[in-house]
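LAB NOTEBOOK - FOLDING QUEUE
OPERATOR: T.R.
BATCH SIZE: 2
PURPOSE: Compare the predicted structure-token outputs for two unrelated chains run back to back under identical settings.
PRIORITY: normal
REVIEWER: second-year student, initials M.K.

ITEM 1
FIELD SEQUENCE / FIELD STRUCTURE:
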Amino acid sequence: MRATLLPIMRLTARTVLFGLAAILGVRLLAMAVIPFADTSEPRYAEIARVMAASGDWITPWFAPGEPFWGKPPLAFWAQAVSGAWLGMGELSLRLPSWLAMLGVLAILHELGRRLYTVQAARWAVLVFSTMLLPLVAAGAVLTDPFLALGVTLGMASFILAPAARSWFWRYGLFIGLAIGFLSKGPLAAVLMAGAIVPWLLWHGNAARHLRALPWVGGTALLSGLTLPWYLLAEWKTPGFLQYFVVGEHVLRFIDPGWTGDRYGSAHSRPYGAIWLDWAMAALPWSPVGLWLLLRQGRGGALAARMRAFGRSVPSTYLFAWAVATPAFFTLSGNILWTYVLPALPPVALGIGAGLSRLDGIAPRRVALACLMLVPAVAIVLGILSFAQPDRFKTEKQLIARADAEIRAGEKLYFVDSMPFSARFYSRGSAVAVSRGDLADVLPSQGGRVLLAVEKRDLADIRARISGTVTPLYTSRRYVLLDVLAPEKH
């Protein structure tokens, strides 16, 4: 019976290609139709748009006159180039993240093939591509996909380098570090070292792996790819290194309520919450991974199986890689769930290796259900973006309505607050005005102005306006008002 059912869990190359094409195709479609929703996506999209429009490829700009020191520019470079070539739209600015995650899948497949089997590699790419956070990140204007690409390349290269014939895997650690340094900063080195060092100490095999790396050439390559930008960034906007290295990498980590954040607010979370994020980010596969792990304790002494796991070079390497990131952030309360993305490729490979050894109808049905769940959610969100756009926290439709109404010489003003989606979709033409300065922009006789007002402030703002006020459009948060000056009698 076992021999009969074994092929059920086997995947052909054609099945994997068709499956990935469907999954990634659904993500591309969702990328094209779902608008940028505040806050992170339109903020980064606007930074990329300004970079392309200004031609300043050294300093990302948060607002006119305010440099964005929170992240290095690799993601913004890719997004700005894509937007300049394909137009500043949702699909073009999300495409670099999609390509970065495609790179992660390619590396993951090669790593799985070399460490385990082709079947394990095929399952791993399907598992990773249908995890919640990877699928979300693959179609989002974020920097995290580039960090995940750098860490995945570096970690895969380190373990493959001793047996590698190609220069690529021997230099891959340094290329991966460069990608990480230019997308998130020194955090990339911390996450890699947090997995590699304990693993080397556990197995006592440091000499073999360290000798396989071209340290002189690799360090020169890493320095050549990263140092010029860091030096130019500090020269162009002094203070960058102090804020980025000390503030973003030390104070943000140790202080949940860090008040030095120039670009938003600190994210205060309970210590250890990153482990819940880790489990949630891997849905729907995290319960499957737990079941596979518990299953290893059946059919023999648990202690013997644990000893076998401890002696397994691939298994312990994947384990160290998977837990290093959440372990690092355990004592930090200033976290986001996207931080666990670099830790998910080894989880996917571990699950893929387990699935490749299973047989039976029930595991097949569970696996198929998991493969379909998250892409189905992406389809639903895409449909909702057409049917009920006001469900999304975005001002895309409000800006479109204002553009249809606005006349030459007129402007759209956001009273008291202007979200990043308004900045991006208006291409920087919308203007923020405080409530106290509202009288300065209200029209004189015969004039007209468009105001965007938060719903909660609508009654107060209307009480301050004389003349004719006509609501034109209502989004989830704002009301677009057409204000005509009162006529003189």
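ITEM 2
FIELD SEQUENCE / FIELD STRUCTURE:
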Amino acid sequence: MKLAGPPPKGQKWDREQALEGLGRLGTPAAWQAILKIALGEGKTAATRAAGSSHEALRAYAILLLGEKGDEAFLTPLLGMLPQAPESLRGEILRTLGFFHAPRANQVLFDRLHSRDVNDRVNAILGLRNLENKNSIPALIAMLDDPSSEVRQVADFALRQLTGKAVTRSPQASVAEAEPAGRRAGEWQAWWRENGGKLVVTAQPPCRDW
């Protein structure tokens, strides 16, 4: 726990490795320490001075909580979502998919309609992490999004979930290669033909918590 905190002046160590060590220790106290860092609790002058590096550590702690997948962590993460800075908000949204929980899934589907492009992008990535074919129709609908970035990420998520190969010029982005409507129509036709028999292959966990 000491190594997960800010080092004294003149010393340096890898706090992310300390967080991983706490996760592997696996005790309730260890996971509560990770949660406190994710929530930004107990800020000191040292952590405030660390600025972006401390925010990056919080983002890593959020990721570890998601990979653990314990629903006990879901309520605190959802509680911090509305006021979280943009970088951490994106991390939370991407992480929600790992929980495979109805409350988390609903937030992701709701954020697909956000006015914020980054929220829509990260909600798509969260649904990709969910690894469930029930999210595919919503992802296909995002191929009609006015933002080319959102359309590209939606296409990426669909290819990862389905294993469907997409042929286009390697020099062109999704937005440049085809109009959004055409891309959505292609996916809709594929889904009608293959959706019933599709089995999404879950990726092995990153860590053996």
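REVIEWER COMMENT (ITEM 2): The two ends are 18 Å apart (CA to CA).
FOLLOW-UP: none requested
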